Amino acid sequence: MSDCLIQHATVVLTGLSDEQARLPKGQCDVRVRQGKIAAIGALTAEPGEVVYDATDRVLAPGWVNTHHHLFQSLLKGLPAGLNARLADWLAAVPVRHRRAFDHEALFRLAVRLGLSELLLSGCTTVADHQYHHYPDMPFDPTAVVFDEANKLGMRMVVCRGLATQVRQIDATPSPQIAPEPLDLFFRRVSEDAARFNDVAPDAMRRVVVAPTTPNWSVKPQELRDIARFARSLSLRMHSHLSETADYGRHTAEVHGCTPLAFVERHEWVGPDVWFAHLVWMDETEQRLLVQSGTGMAHCPQCNARLGSGTAPVVELLRLGGKVSLGVDGAASNEAADMLSEVHMAFLMHRLRHGPQALSTDQVVRMATAGGAEVLGLPGIGSIEIGQAADLASYRLDSAAALGLHDPGSAPVLCGRALHTDTVWVAGNPVVRGGDIPGLDRIRLAAHAREAVQYIVQTVGG
Ligand SMILES: [Zn+2]
């Protein structure tokens, strides 16, 4: 762990709400000891202390991305799915191309690409929803993702996916989209939990139980069994829900209720559960979500890219709901970085509700402390004494920030055009001067180009 003093930041965003959202002017120095924030205020360097000069920088908590599919980092902008809605896009892009990812090297490359892109945007914690497991998989994707995150020094939450049944859209049979029996899933997740899951409030590794969708991936009785299994191991639960209106139609036809009522019936609501998307919810569902303490991973860029709709984020925040931000996979959001995502979240809800719908500080909270709350990691996500020193500084001399009257609004208003300077995870500087030390980006780019060629040749574009 690196001890240091981060001094003279122009503004510090805390990740907290309202009047606590920014540190008072002149009280913006942050001391890091043993990976945690040890002091905040107007601080003087101690003898021999490493000092990081944050002059003309905005300092914020590292972003917490609560929904992603890292394997999609090599499936950006596939023409076959570029103008398709969710179901057709799923068939044409991630499901069809899963067979290319039965090589560990390709999967590992995709994970590295996705994580490095996120890290360079100031993201320090990632929840990766893995839905590509099949019974005879020749490598362990969970171990690969934890290994790659460890190399970059990032916190990683693996949401272990599951499909015990194959959807109609999986038109071309292949071993890579074969269903996984529930007992095999339970055995493997138990092993993963014993090997990787850390219960600390600022854990570097977490394992989550995450069937791909409650509607189509498992049978209703299995859904309840999965919830009981997860809770028996004190693991959190995650899935996709109500991304499109199809979820509501399907649940009404098959189960005679709304999607939220369906998951509640099968013990899939509570403070240990969060769902990605939740674009389509009526008011009763919104109240149920909030009252049960169930979280949301809001994915505005993916929802816009696939034309899925605008999630009721403003409504949920007014009810006191738990809203976090996720970039979702790069195959449905080619800007799979958190600066782009906060920018889009800010714009999308103002488009619908007007300019008072959401402030920049509310978006920062959603993407930091809001994410930590949803993931059950209370030791990260905010700049407060005792919290993990997961921090990101951004350059206010970036072209996009010049002329800006409120420097604290820069990460949200400037988006990806804001240059990241330094990123720390548990006090370790994992990005320096806008670069990841030890990562050969030229080599990575060459490998990415080769991989795209391979995917086109073996599966198609
Ligand atoms: Zn997703």
Structure in words:
With 461 residues, the chain is α/β, with parallel strands linked by helices. The chain has two domains: 105 residues, Roll (Urease, subunit C, domain 1); 313 residues, TIM Barrel. It has 15 helices and 17 strands. A five-stranded mixed sheet has the order 2-6-15-16-17, with no helix packed on it. It has a four-stranded mixed sheet with strand order 4-3-1-5, with no helix packed on it. Helix 4 links the parallel strand 9 and strand 10. It starts with a strand and ends with a helix. It binds zinc ion (ZN).
Q: TL;DR of this structure?
A:
The chain folds into two domains: 4-60 and 384-431, Urease, subunit C, domain 1 (Roll); 63-375, Metal-dependent hydrolases (TIM Barrel), CATH 3.20.20.140.
So what's the CATH class of the largest domain?
A: Alpha Beta
What assembly state would you assign to the polypeptide chains in this entry? single chain
Query: Structural class of the secondary structure composition?
Result: alpha/beta
Bound molecules: zinc ion
Question: What is the strand arrangement across the widest sheet?
Answer: 2-6-15-16-17
Helix content: 25-40%
Strand content: 15-25%
Count of helix runs: 15
State the end-to-end distance. 44 Å
Q: Quick one: how many beta strands?
A: 17
Low-confidence stretches: none
CATH architecture term of the largest domain: Alpha-Beta Barrel
Q: How many domains?
A: 2
Mean pLDDT: 96
